[in-house]
Write a structure and sequence with these properties.
It is built from eight helices and eight strands. The protein is α/β, with parallel strands linked by helices. It starts with a strand and ends in a 15-residue tail after the last helix.
């Protein structure tokens, strides 16, 4: 699987570290590669730096680890995504983390899918902080990672990636389920920043029997 991550901020770099540690090669795509030469070089030889457009061309799976508004623009810019899997790791956050700008009747992921012609969009890697993306290990068990998408094969690919880097990957079904996944991200943000829990916690699924 050829993996590209668009964005080299906290989430993009955290996912890159986790994927590289699991044995995957990763291309990181940014608008100005010269600004990230040292940071990407420090990730090791399996990490490649490219422009955003070049990273998309190289990737079979492209993770959007950029702000939501930037993700919309990226999705719309290409005339045809040619069947690539887009993983939407964004959240449509309102200013000052006041909430979500979308919800209930649509989702950020569905808005991206409406603009990404020829892409198979999957929602994942948006419900927890970058620290958990980089290292999902907890003594109590694996944190949950919801995954939703209309294309079953694409969804399975992303479920496998989430499991590979240590998450309890949960199949949430169609992309419309992102309407419930994105508020879960807001719940994590609320606890972390408004309720004083900090960033070193994660949500988990528990079963009886």
């Amino acid at each position: 699987m050829k993996l590209s991550i668009l964005g080299a901020g906290n989430v993009g770099m955290a996912l890159a570290r986790a994927l590289l540690r699991s044995g995957q090669a990763v291309t990181l795509g940014v608008p100005e590669p010269a600004r990230y030469v040292d940071a990407v070089a420090a990730l090791g030889p399996q990490a490649t730096l490219a422009t955003s457009d070049d990273a998309v061309e190289r990737g079979e799976v492209v993770i959007l680890a950029v702000p939501y508004t930037a993700a919309l623009a990226i999705a719309e810019r290409r005339a045809d995504w040619q069947g690539r899997v887009i993983v939407d790791a964004t959240n449509p956050l309102a200013p000052a983390l006041a909430g979500l700008s979308l919800g209930t009747t649509t989702s950020g992921a569905e808005q991206i899918a409406a603009r990404a012609r020829g892409a198979r969009v999957v929602k994942a890697f948006n419900t927890t902080g970058a620290e958990n993306m980089a290292d999902a290990r907890y003594a109590q068990g694996a944190p949950m990672m919801p995954v939703a998408g209309d294309d079953a094969a694409a969804r399975q690919q992303v479920l496998a990636l989430a499991s590979l880097i240590g998450f309890d990957a949960i199949d949430f079904g169609p992309l419309s389920a992102a309407r419930w996944i994105e508020p879960l991200a807001m719940a994590w943000i609320h606890l972390a920043f408004k309720q004083g829990h900090g960033r070193q916690f994660a949500f988990a699924r528990m079963r009886r029997g």
